[in-house]
Amino acid sequence: MSAFGNSGGTPAGQAKRQIRPQRAAELVAADIRGRILSGELDEGLPTEMVLLDEFSVSRPTLREALRILETEGLVRTRRGKQGGAVVSRPTVDTAAYHLGLVLQSVSVDLNDLAKARHLLEPLCVSLAAQRPDREVLAAELEALVDESEELIGDGAAFTASLLRFHEALVKACRNETLQILVGTVERVWDSQERAWAQEASERGDYPDK
Fold first, then answer.
1. How far is 49 from 69, CA to CA, in rounded Å?
2. Which of the ends of the chain has fewer CB neighbours closer than 10 A, N or C?
3. Of 112 and 78, more confident
4. Above 50 in pLDDT, residue 20?
5. Centroid of chain to Cα 10
6. Residue 30 contacts residue 64 (beta carbons within 8 Å)
7. Where are the alpha helices (DSSP H) in the chain?
8. Could you tell me how far CA 162 lies from the centroid of its own chain?
9. 122, 144, 172 from 141: Cα distances, Å
10. What is the reported pTM?
11. Which tens digits make up the pLDDT trace of 153-174?
12. Is 137 in contact with 128 (CB distance < 8 Å)?
């Protein structure tokens, strides 16, 4: 008798489970997804007839695969004579959109978001300060500060200029992972701050100089 209490290798009293193989639609979606992310499919997908022939699947299976990719934001359907499935590669903006939805779903407030931003951004600054061309970078950032000062009095424009400064800080780190991670948080914050600045300016209660 085995250590599990039976000869089949399954713990005593536990029924065997059947593992369902991946559906054909999921396999097709995985193949197309990989080609989109690698850049092989950079603009549009082949026609439906070409894909049906390539994967040897039914039309409903192919369309289900495309729906999976559309849900992931990797494919969108374009209507009209020039219609068809169009590739939409993920960007920081699309990541920010989904992060915003997640934060909203768990009721994260702006103070929480601001704290995360203030903790993450200095990591980018630290790496930027180690660049051999940091003096040139500092001059570029000072120019952005000067630009902001010239816009004092125009709330929405001043805020937009400040956000460009913070975006430049993130890009200056030259670490792709941090640029995407912190850049995504920055995008979510930016959308909120731009909306606030516009509303405050229209109400006439944007903070004075």
1. 18
2. C
3. 112
4. no
5. 43
6. no
7. 24-38, 48-55, 59-71, 92-105, 110-129, 134-150, 155-172, 176-203
8. 22
9. 15, 5, 10
10. 0.70
11. 899 999 999 999 999 999 999 9
12. yes
